[in-house]
Amino acid sequence: MSTLQIIPIYHKVFLFYFKFPFLYDPATRRFKTDGGKDLIYSFYLAECVVISCMVLAIIEVVNDIRYPENIGVLEILLIVVALILTVFNVTSTIALSIVKNEFVAFYNDLICQVELLDEVFAKRKPTKKLDKLTIILSIFIFLSAPMPLLFAIFCGYLTIHDSFAHLLYAWADAICPLNTYFACKSITFIVVTAYYGFVAFNDTAALVGGVINSAVIGNMLIDSVTKLARLSPSLYSIQIYQRFRILAKNLEAISALVASLLLSLGFGFTVTCNFVSVRMAGVIPMPFYLVFPIGSLLGMVGIRLLLPYGIACHENSSKLLVEWRTRLRLKRGNMRLEEKMGRMLIPIGIRVGSGEFSFFVLKKSTRSTYYMALMDYTVNALMA
Q: Signal peptide span per the entry (predicted)?
């Protein structure tokens, strides 16, 4: 439960203005929905600005296709990064706003079940104030925070030199000639950079929030399964396992969608940042170039954080069920009810899919397949 300490840290860094339809109360250690008037400006209006940026990026892509002579490799890569982040932001926030009540209920029930299980191990050693996962997530948060600012300044610099967002440049130049008046160029740079920065920071807040919540939920599930493995297979322990399984099943649709988005985002974002870090070295001026190596590092850290947790949920629960069934068979005749219940239990797994469709469950084989695909596409992009 010590990993819950990371959520207030995330709120202080990223959600000082932006808000989501649910929030965490450190005093009660519970989540609650937020449907107040504050969301009009801090959530709905902010998401409208993000959607406008996504629409502008799509229009820019269409314009570049119509006039290919204006297309540059760097511009394409920046638009790809922007589209990946904005699509993830809009998709995830809309999905969570629709199921916010179910998500809050799931989170609170999960915390409650973890606390009930902790009572069984009341004599356990006290946990440290900050565990390893909390420290790693804190570093992830603080490294992610300045990236939107550098990205926005770089895109603003390219925009006023007509190397990025040509439609915005044409619109601004029609109002006030940018190459004639320095004041026009300065004002345009400030406005465009503020716009890019607002959207980029909102995108980063949504992305980091998805990583944080997924890591915290995965850590609580794995920790609970590990504790259950220390209990003897009995009616009480089986019922506790069933509660965790029901909780995971109730939110399977949204968890499958979030897992799909995170895996897709991590793949596309990391491959793009790897390509830019190698091929654009010396082309992008410092310190803006650092956005892409650090972005690649953060992408790999996020993948290495979340993928093992998703896999461990299925692997650890599978081993637990095999051990329980073996021990119950040895006691055959004395625990018939428990033996029947044990045979009906299924592992707790994170599915990847959308809606009612499930493509696969995160297993041990998923890790090697994902890493090999990540490496292959990076190498193919560099050799193209």
A: none
